[in-house]
Every structure is written in C-alpha cells, then in structure tokens.
Amino acid sequence: MAKDAGIYVIPGGDSIGLHLKPGVYITGKYDVKTERGEVSPWKASNLEIGDKILAINDTEVSRIADIQKVLSSLKKEEDLALKIKRKTHILITTCRAVRDRSGKMTLGLYVKDEVLGVGTVTYIEPETKKFGALGHSMVADNLSGENLGTISASSIRGIKKSFPGVPGEKHATLSKTSVGTILKNDEIGVFGIVHDLQDFSDGKPIKVANPKEVRLGKAELLTVLGNNKIENFSVEIVEVKHQNSKDIKGIKFRVTDEVLLEKTGGIVQGMSGSPIIQNNKLVGAVSHVVIDSPDFGYCVFAMWMIGSF
C-alpha cells in the first residue's frame, strides 16, 4: 500500500524504566565533622543545589568516581577550582577540600550522577528504530551523547491512585536488561534507539498529525496498567494551543474512560509519554497532570517530539 509523504511511526504505550547518566549534579550540602569541629567547606563558594560539576582543577568530571579520585589524590586540605554549569551559564568557583574525622577528603556536597525513572514509550520509527518517550525532560539540562543512559522493560505491579492535590504513580519492577540506548534528553522528551522492535508494541505504523490537524473532541490514550498489556482508554481533547515552536503543553485533555478513572483517578506518574491517538493519527504524548484535577492532563504535540530527534 502506497504511503503519502507524511511521517509514520509505531505508536507506543509500553512501560519502560529509564536510567540516565547525565553527569554530576549537586543535590545538597552538609557540615563536615573534622578534628577541629564542624566546618562548611562550601561556605565561601558560589555553589547552588542543581549545579552540574564539569571539572575540578581542570580535571573533567562525569561520574562521582571522578570526584573521589581527585579528592583521594590530595595530600592536604586545599581550595579546589570547580567549573560548574548553572542552567545555561558556565561558572568557576572554589570549594575547600577538608579532611573528616575518618581521614577522608570531602567537599561537604551531596551529589548524584544517575537518575532513574518510569515512563512510557510514545513512538518508534520502524526503519531507524528511533524512539521518543516521556513527553518531558528527566533533568533540566539539554543533553546529547553516546553514553547518556539506557531504557529497560518495566513491569507494572500496582497503581497508587491520583486524588486532587495528590498525584498518583505506577509502581513498577525494572528489568536489568537494556532494551534501548538513550541519546538525547531535552524539555519535551527522552530519545534514543531501541535494540529490537520485537521488545515493544507490535502495532501498525500510523501517521503523525500536524499540530494544525488536532481537533477538540474524542481521542484515545495508550498505556499499561498491568500484565505488560497496552490498553486503549477514551479521553477528550478540550483545548488545542496554536504553537509555532515546541512546548510541553500544546494539548489539554480530560480522561473520560470510567475504567481508567476507577483504576488510577486520572493521570499518574509513569504515564508520561503515553501516546494520544485521534482519527488514527498520533497527535501527542502525555506530559503533565493537572495536580488539582488529575482527570485532566497536558500533552506535547507528537510532531514536536519527532522533529526534536
């Protein structure tokens, strides 16, 4: 059957685990107990929670182990030059390396170099095996590279329902086996390459809708609530925004499916990325829940995701 010039993808709905390795981020600060009492080695520094550490004394840092290696090489307490990224700005500041009571050198910073999450595949391009998922970023920075992270199969074992003011979530068990590679994270999703199409939905390719084609009215949401089974649920698109550039809130919708409302209370965490289908076209991906009214949610236009990777 001949296809027109549009873009065709396999709609997702598969639940996945996401394991992102975005670099080293500061998540907190603490006072260090030393032989001379408690000290705050970061007190004179320009360091904030959320900063990404890029280098220490000109040594590039991409893992916590890199910081530990620098600190273990020090013979005495000293000020270290930290190159950090704060949103779009690159800054240089100093932080004191001090020796705690156990004899270890430390900066008094809580840091993380991994982010784990549960989400939903939005689409897979059958020819290239490119995928898009989540409908929003995992971390605030726009990242791309060969070793950003992996996706794995995710088995939903239960649902915590959403209530007004209290978002629910999918409880999942994540496989340790990688089924895809993450190559990009930006504000509208997580993108990469799947290893084998057979690990995912075997749905037939459908056309990706242009944002101008999306209409108010009935649509379907694809997601997994249990038994690794993708199910279709009815929703109603209640608002379509006219956008000339990508944004995570292009479509507002309401869950109308009584079964979904009974099981989840509406939109829950882990549902992000769930594809929205209208007139047999992929129109969007769930990106956010309306916290005070969890039967309402927002979507990013699918075309923005396709064009992002």
Protein architecture, described:
With 309 residues, the protein is mostly beta strands. The protein folds into two domains: 206 residues, Thrombin, subunit H (Beta Barrel), CATH 2.40.10; 89 residues, PDZ domain (Pdz3 Domain, Roll), CATH 2.30.42. The chain has three helices and 24 strands. The strands form three sheets. The protein has a 15-stranded mixed beta sheet that branches. Strand 9 and strand 10 form a beta hairpin.
Features:
309 residues, mainly beta, Thrombin, subunit H, Pdz3 Domain, 2 domains, 15-stranded mixed β-sheet, seven-stranded antiparallel β-sheet
SS-based structural class? mainly beta
Q: How many domains?
A: 2
Percent helix:
under 10%
Mean residue pLDDT: 95
Number of helices: 3
Distance between the termini: 27 Å
Major sheet description: 15 strands, mixed
Order of helices and strands: EEEEEEEHEEEEEEEEEEEEEHEEEEH
Short structural description:
With about 300 residues, the protein is mainly beta. It has three helices and 24 strands.
Topology:
Layout: E1 8-11, E2 15-20, E3 24-29, E4 32-34, E5 37-39, E6 52-56, E7 59-60, H1 64-72, E8 78-86, E9 89-99, E10 105-106, E11 109-112, E12 115-124, E13 130-133, E14 143-160, E15 168-186, E16 189-194, E17 206-208, E18 217-224, E19 230-240, E20 251-255, H2 258-264, E21 268-269, E22 275-278, E23 281-289, E24 296-301, H3 302-308
